[in-house]
Amino acid sequence: VGRPNVGKSTLLNALVGQKVSITSDKAQTTRHRITGVRTVDEAQFVFVDTPGFQTKHNAALNRTLNRTVHGVLADVDLVLFVVEAGRFGLDDAKVLALLPEDKPVVLIANKLDAVHRRAELAPWLKGMQERRNFSEFVPLSAKKEADVTRLFKILKPYLPEQGWFYDEDALTDRSERFLASEIIREKL
User: Fold this and answer.
1) What is the CATH number of domain 8-179?
2) Strand, helix or coil at 70?
3) In whole angstroms, what separates CA 59 from the centre of its chain?
4) Residue 29 confidence class, pLDDT cut points 50, 70, 90
């Protein structure tokens, strides 16, 4: 979860290894709960992409998108809180306030490739740790395969011991028709 345009859908696509969620610089691109699945060896990871949390609730669409975010937070075992590396604004703080206290939360500092002065990340990280006791802190670029591979290793211990929800070759719970309609919407 995270505010709009922090790279949640880009990260989901990288984790799945294929585009299952559309991406755009426009807010409200992701409007549905999108499940992405990746089976690595004996472990199956099930990720859920959410719309960016909308801080302006005056529009019906924004309220609907926010209900989706709340529903996902109730359903998952582990929360990935995605922010832009080195940035934390009011919209990020509003999302942070929503996160459940009874579940582990991993802070994903995405878009690391856009940070020009890495030394500035240390005080930023200290400030983030003061905001919440995150289970893990993972600086990464969703566009770098090595970073995504490292993230799988970090997340694996958090997987519950249970049977798989999806077939080994499944990538999403969405139909091809839905994915096609989303890609058309992305291009418009």
Assistant:
1) 3.40.50.300
2) helix
3) 23
4) low
